[in-house]
Automatic annotation (TrEMBL):
One Pfam family named in its UniProt record: FliJ
Keyword Coiled coil: yes
Coiled-coil ranges per UniProt: 16-92
Organism expressing this protein natively: Helicobacter marmotae
Cellular compartments per GO CC: bacterial-type flagellum
Phylogenetic placement of the source organism: Bacteria, Pseudomonadati, Campylobacterota, Epsilonproteobacteria, Campylobacterales
Keywords on record: Coiled coil
Protein name: Uncharacterized protein
UniProt keyword annotation of Coiled coil present: yes
GO terms of biological process kind: bacterial-type flagellum-dependent cell motility
Length: 142
């Protein structure tokens, strides 16, 4: 049964679902960043320092190490931003959910009112039919 709150419920539910999708997308991004951090950490561990040879090999090793550490720091910063965004998305979801529950409660109340009015009208109609039958038979039992 539709009430005046039905379109609002649909909007609130849509907002909640959009927020859920954003949370899932953010979770996927967090997982990807963690996998990138893991790969870079493995690459750093696998990096071998030259034991002998030219000084340029040592410089190349140091540059590669600095580059990997800088890249690791950038990805770690991005991960921290995603985690902060996750918290804000969760708070936003809570707000949307509360709004949805409020409107759903009002809708349920309105539906109950409508059902009560419908039942009362039905009772009056049944009573009216009973009175008409009673009057038609002259007060005798049928």
């Amino acid at each position: 049964m539709t009430t005046k709150f039905s379109p609002i419920i649909d909007l609130r539910k849509k907002d909640m679902q959009e927020c859920e999708r954003a949370i899932l997308q953010n979770e996927n991004n967090i997982t990807n960043k963690r996998a990138q951090i893991e790969r870079i950490a493995d690459e750093l561990v696998g990096l071998k320092m030259p034991q002998n040879g030219m000084f340029s090999a040592m410089q190349a090793y140091n540059e590669m190490k600095k580059m990997l550490l800088a890249h690791l720091q950038n990805i770690q910063d991005e991960l921290n931003e995603l985690l902060l965004h996750k918290n804000s998305l969760q708070n936003q979801y809570k707000k949307h959910h509360i709004e949805y529950e409020k409107i759903a409660f009002l809708d349920k109340k309105e539906q109950d009112k409508m059902f009560k009015a419908l039942n009362n009208r039905e009772k009056r109609e049944v009573d009216e039919i009973a009175m008409m039958l009673y009057n038609r038979t002259g007060g005798k039992r049928i």
